[in-house]
Amino acid sequence: MTTTPRVRMSPATRRAQLLDLGVALLATRSLDELSIDLLAEEANISRGLLYHYFGNKQDFHEAVVRRAVQDLIEVTAPVDDPDMVTRLAVSLDNYLAYVEANRVAYVSIVRAASGNNDTMREIYQSARNALTDRIFDAAGPAGLAEFGIEDTPGVRLVVRGWAAMVEQLVLDWIDDPRGISRPALLETLTATLALTLSAAP
Amino acid sequence: MTTTPRVRMSPATRRAQLLDLGVALLATRSLDELSIDLLAEEANISRGLLYHYFGNKQDFHEAVVRRAVQDLIEVTAPVDDPDMVTRLAVSLDNYLAYVEANRVAYVSIVRAASGNNDTMREIYQSARNALTDRIFDAAGPAGLAEFGIEDTPGVRLVVRGWAAMVEQLVLDWIDDPRGISRPALLETLTATLALTLSAAP
Predict the structure, then answer these.
(1) Which of A134, A144, A152, A176 is the most exposed place for a label (fewest CB within 10 A)?
(2) Residue B187: its chain A contacts at CB < 8 A?
C-alpha cells in the first residue's frame, strides 16, 4: 500500500498563496467586496485559519494591496534594451495591460490609497515612487543624458506629476476610449515624459 | 425709545452664511474634523437648527465641499486678456494661491473625492471638468488655434491628464518646495499644457 506523501507548506508559502488568491479575486471585484468570508470559501479553509494569517479585515486588505502593487512593479520592470525610449514604451505597455486586466482592482486600490487610510496611502505612494524612481535608477546618468536632462529635484517633481497624468489618462481611456486606439494612447503616454521634462523647473 | 430693526435673513441666505463659515473652518482642519458640533459652537446657534439646514453630517460635508469647489472655480475664473497663455498663467497663479491658503481643506477634499463616496467623487469630478473644460470654452476655437490644436476627444483626454499632473505638482511642491521657487513652478505648470497637448492622440 502506497500513500501520497503529504506536502507540508511553510506558513509563509501558504500565506503567499492565499494572497495570490486574494489578488486574483480582486480582479473582478472592489476591495470593499473582498471579505475574509469570500476568501475562506474560495480557498476552502476556515475563517479561523484566515484570521490566524491576516489578523483582521483591514490587515488582510493591506496585505492584498501590498501584493497587488508588488505585482504591478514586477510586470512593469524595465526590459533589457539600450534605448531608454524603448524601455519606457515597453514598461508603459505592460502597465496599461495590467490595468486593463485588473481594472476593478486597480480603481479600488487607487481609491483606497487616495482615501483617509494612512497605511493604504503609504503602500500606494511607495509603489508609485518605486515606479517613477526606476526611471532614474535604471536609466542612470547616461540614460537621463539621452533625454538631455539631469537628475534634479525639479525633474523628480515633474516625473511624479507625469505619473499622475499617466494614471488619469489610462483610467479615463479604459472607461471610455473615445475612438482613440491603444497604440495612439501608448504613444501619447511615452511622448509626454520627455515633453514635460523639458519644462522641469 | 428706539429699537434696532431686526433683520430677518431668508433661510437660503442663512444657509449660505453657515456654509461660508464651514469652508472657513475647513481651511485649518480636515473634513473629518469638521463636525456639526463645531459649526454650532462657532456660529453660536443650536445643533438642532443646523440639522434643520443640513440634514446630517454627510449632507453637511457634501454641502461644504460643493461650496469649496465653487469658490475654487470662481477664484480661478479666466481674466479678460486676449492672450491665452496669459489667461492660463493667471488662472494657475490663482489656483496655486487658493491651494496654498486652503491646503488642509484642499487635501481633505481631494482625499474625500478620491475615496469610496460616490457623491463626493461626483462633486469633485464635475469641478475638475469645469476647470478644464473652461480651457476650451473660454478660449473658443480661436484660442485653441493659438495653441495650434483642435477640440478633439484626444485633446480633451490629455487636458484632463494635465489637470491631474498640475494637482500632483502643486500638492507635492507645497509639501516640500525642494528649493523650487513659486514663479519657476508656475512656469512649469503653464508650459506643460501646450507641451502635453502637442502629443495628444
Answers:
(1) A176
(2) 199, 201
Whose cell is 537628475? That residue is A151
Q: B74-83: b or e for each residue (b if 16 or more CB lie within 10 Å)?
A: eebebeeeee
String of b and e for B118-149 (b: at least 16 CB within 10 Å)? Answer: eebbebbeebbeebbebbbeebeeebbeebeb
List, in sequence order, the alpha helices (H) in chain B: 11-26, 36-43, 47-54, 57-75, 84-101, 103-114, 118-146, 153-175, 182-197
Closest-CA residue of chain B to A165: B161
Nine cell digits for residue B155: 485633446
User: C-alpha grid cell for residue B137?
Assistant: 470654452
Does position A58 have pLDDT exceeding 80, yes or no? yes
Instruction: Write out pLDDT tens, residues B135-157.
Output: 766 555 556 666 677 888 999 89
Return the number of other C-beta atoms located less than 10 Å from residue A75's C-beta. 14
C-alpha triplet A98, A104, A105: angle, nearest 5°: 65
Q: What percent of chain B has pLDDT over 70?
A: 89
Cα–Cα distance, A66 to A62 (Å, whole number):
6
For residue A60, pLDDT over 60 is answered with yes
Cβ–Cβ below 8 Å for A158 and B169? yes
Would you call A157 exposed, middle or buried from its count of C-beta atoms within 10 A (0-12, 13-18, 19+)?
Answer: buried
Cell 483642435: give the residue: B150
Q: Considering CB atoms only, which of B111, B114, B165 is closest to A165?
A: B165
Question: Which residue is closest to A121 within chain B, CA to CA?
Answer: B111
Residues of A in contact with B165 (CB under 8 A): 161-162, 164-165, 168, 196
What average pLDDT is seen over chain A? 85
> Beta-carbon neighbour count of residue A134 at 10 Å?
16
